[in-house]
Amino acid sequence: MKIGVISDVHSNIQALRAVLDTFDKEKVDQIICCGDVIGIGINPDEVIQELMKRKDKFISVIGNHEQYLLKGLPKEIHDDKRKMSEQEIENHKWNHSKLSDQSIIFLRQLETSQNIKLAGKRFYIVHYPQQADGTYKKHIKNPSAMDNVEMFKENDADIFLYGHTHTFSVNNINDKWYINTGALGCPMKSNIARAGILEINDEKIQFKSINVEYNVKEIIDEINNLKFPFYEEILKIFY
Q1: 48-102: per-residue pLDDT in tens?
Q2: CB of 67 within 8 A of CB of 204?
Q3: How distant, in Å, are the alpha carbons of 38, 71, 96, 144, 229 from that of 234?
Q4: How far is CA 173 from CA 130, 138, 146, 147, 177, in A?
Q5: Is 14 left (phi over 0), alpha (psi -120 to 50) or beta?
Q6: How many C-beta atoms surround the C-beta of residue 115 within 10 A?
Q7: Is the pLDDT of residue 172 over 70?
Q8: pTM over 0.90
Q9: How many angstroms separate the CA atoms of 164 and 161, rounded?
Q10: Helix or strand or coil: residue 78?
Q11: Which end of the chain is more exposed for a tag (fewer CB within 10 A), N or C?
Q12: pLDDT > 90 in the chain, percent
């Protein structure tokens, strides 16, 4: 069985389509997303509609950006405990305003985490491991294997899939896999969309990272033309 893994699409339809084309060529049987489908980029509705076309083999959880839509904007940013600026708030509102009712209904149906079984293996899927009160645990961009064990100590699975940090990380310890494919939709001064493919055959697990090239300049030009709230900072931080 082949499973495509993505996270942090962030409203980047060009990057998503590039990765989905690769998944089609690789003939993946299932696609798992670790949240943050929306936010930051300029095409949140198109991204959701594209994923909905594959709903029969698509599994996802919500990330903090979906929570901003479904539960309201927080008083503090979850990682560095600072207040959102007015421009950031307006940016989120702008992104949310582009969503259709159908897309919002789709997001409302998603869970914060999922425990599933595929090809005889137990999966735990989450945007990022959480505390008992629902807040995210300490943000670790490059976790060691032991960091991963500590992060997920309340959960039991063979394969742990998560995102949120926008950084690629794979650890395998005691026959357990901890995989963060990095941000699909935030190129960070590159021209690649990041994803991964898990292959499970006869109880054997193999993972390979996928770096798909696409036209990032096209998106940057669109962002500069739209000049939506907080766009200059978005380009600086995420593009």
Answers
A1: 999 999 999 999 999 999 999 999 998 777 666 678 899 999 999 999 999 999 9
A2: no
A3: 14, 23, 16, 29, 9
A4: 21, 21, 8, 11, 7
A5: alpha
A6: 13
A7: yes
A8: yes
A9: 11
A10: coil
A11: N
A12: 92
